[in-house]
Structures are given as C-alpha cells and as structure tokens.
Amino acid sequence: MELWSGGPVFRQAAQAPLGTDSVLLADFAAGKGTRGIDLGCGSGILSLLLLTSMPRLHMTGLELREEAAAVARENLAANGLAERAEVLTGDIRRVRELFHPGSFDLCAANPPYFSVGSGERAPDPARASAREESECTLEELCAAAAYLLPTGGRFCLVYRPERLSALFCAMSAAGLEPKRLRLCCHHPGAAPNLVFAEGRRGGRPGLTIEPILYLTDSDGQETAEIRRIYHRD
After folding, report:
1. Nearest alpha-carbon partner for 209 in 193, 222, 220, 198
2. Which of the pair, 117 or 154, is modelled with greater confidence?
3. Which of 57, 78, 176, 179 to pair with 106, CA 20 to 30 A apart?
C-alpha cells in the first residue's frame, strides 16, 4: 500500500502492524543526524519515514524476529532505499556485541508500553512481546540507546503518559537527559494517550514541553498538523 498518494509503499508484517504512533514518532524525531538506528524496527516503517524526510540519513534497523526483519528489508528495497539502510536481526539487550559505542547520532524506538503482567497477555507471542516488556525492559532499552549514542546524541521514542515517570527515571539512570516532551491527545479536552520524548546523551538539565498534538479538532475533523504529517493537504 501507499502511505500517501505518490508516497512510499509499505507492506506490514503480521507481527508488526502499522500504527499511528510510529508515523507520529517519525515526525517528532526528524531533524539533525546522519547515522540512525531503529531499536526494534518491526516492518521498518520508522526507518522508511525518517529516510524519506532526512536525505542525508543512513538508517540501521535492529529487529529480534527474522520474519519482520525480512519485511523491513523488502520495504526499504521497494522504495529504493536499500543503499541508505540495513536491517540486522539481533537482540537490543546485546548491542554491545553488535556495535561500537557511539556508533549512531540518532536512536529511535517504538517500544512495548507495558511491564510484564500489567494486563491481559496477547495469545500470540510476537504480539505479546510488542505489547509488554517480556523481551526487553524499558531500562534495558535506555541502556542500549545510551551505549549507541555519543555525547549529544538523540534518543527519541513514543510511550504511554501513565508511565512517564518510569521513562524519565530510566533515561536519567542511563545518562540520557530528557530534553523534549510532546503530549498527544485525540481531541481538545481529552487526556493524553501518547507521549513523545527526546533524551540527549550527557545533556544538560532542561526540558522543553512542546505544544500538544491533537489528532482531531473539536468538530471531529483531522487537524492541519495531522494532515501535514500524513501528506493529506
């Protein structure tokens, strides 16, 4: 399928479906950087979108499941991006065996949102690992990002607002100073349902809270920003 009219084509793996959170994260994370890594890349949507918006970027996808990694490679090749990207099959918890420290200036992740046992477990193991931290905890994810980034490198991720305290604690413990935060709400007046955060390796204290991202306006119509992100204008 086309992500937008005339835009990149994308096929999703059964165990790594396309979600709004990854599309919005790609927009949040876009900026400076020439060497990026997507930790737990799934079908490769985040890498694909970042490569599309950042022409100087080279992306590495790291994915535990070979089936999803193969689809990510196909997606990158189908869009003529194979020379600017690679997808490796490997465990986030073992990045020290795969990469040198400080190998990337941008790390991005759409990790599991829930701790093990915090809710009903999905019957499919792949879906369960995408939902809860059975194969990589939040602390392990932040430690991996901190190892992969040089001083000043950026770590961007999407998470749930009810676990924001845990996220900031894990980032700070790993040496990633929270620097940017953006809340996402379905519509004005609704409580946030997602948060987008950026930490800097070895950064100075000081957090910038950006304007709220609304999916729809008070009339239920897509906001101008969502139309921009999805190229619907």
Report:
1. 198
2. 154
3. 78
List, in sequence order, the alpha helices (H) in the chain: 20-29, 45-53, 66-78, 95-98, 125-131, 138-148, 164-173, 224-229
Which residue from 97, 89, 86, 95 is spatially nearest to 35, judged by alpha carbons? 86
Q: Computed over its alpha carbons, how large is the radius of gyration of the chain?
A: 17
Nearest Cα to Cα of residue 231 among 83, 90, 53, 68: 53
What's residue 124's pLDDT? 53
Q: Can you count the helices (H) and strands (E) in the chain?
A: 8, 9
Structure tokens, 143: 């430690």
- Is residue 118 very low, low, confident or very high in pLDDT (cuts 50, 70, 90)? low
Q: Which amino acid is at 171?
A: M
| Domain architecture of the chain: domains with CATH | 20-229 (3.40.50.150)
Both structure tokens of 55: 């022409």
171: CB partners within 8 A, 6+ apart: 142, 155, 177, 178, 197, 199
